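name: query_chain
kind: protein
chains: 1
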Amino acid sequence: MRKISIIGGAAACAALGLLAACSQPPAPGSGMRAPDHDIVAAIRAAGERDSSVVQVAPLRDPAIDGFLDAARAAERAGDVAGAIAKTDAALKLAPDAPDILQYRAELAVGAKDYATAENDARRSWQLGPKVGGLCAENWQTILEIEQLKGNAQAVQDARAGRDKCHVQGPIRM
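structure:
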């Protein structure tokens, strides 16, 4: 009788151990490398470094700019979730605004939501100009995320896409 209770107890412990292992949440960003630099800064620097002769800037409703100003203030205060909420409000008014989509991609990177960041950057590139700083930021976002995934070919493709964003001005004599 004692043998049965010991075996039964061991089986119960094993079952509880299996249940506990199954109930653990997956590690954040599983399958992805940890970033070794400030990804958002690298993305924004790519746009600032682009000195293309062509830059595209949208004209829009001042209400949208109000939401974006509030989002930037929230981001500076360290409230990434609040910044995303304000950016989402701006996107309700202008759902196809490539610059707003790119900004939300950058915020998603800050929140370590890399899937959303990549989707927003790709959609921004599809809707936006294929030249200039915004284009460079789109591709830098994709490049950074592909580096985290360890996908060398996609990194190379993104780097080539980013480099195509630059447009040289005419040579003046």
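note: The radius of gyration is 23 Å.
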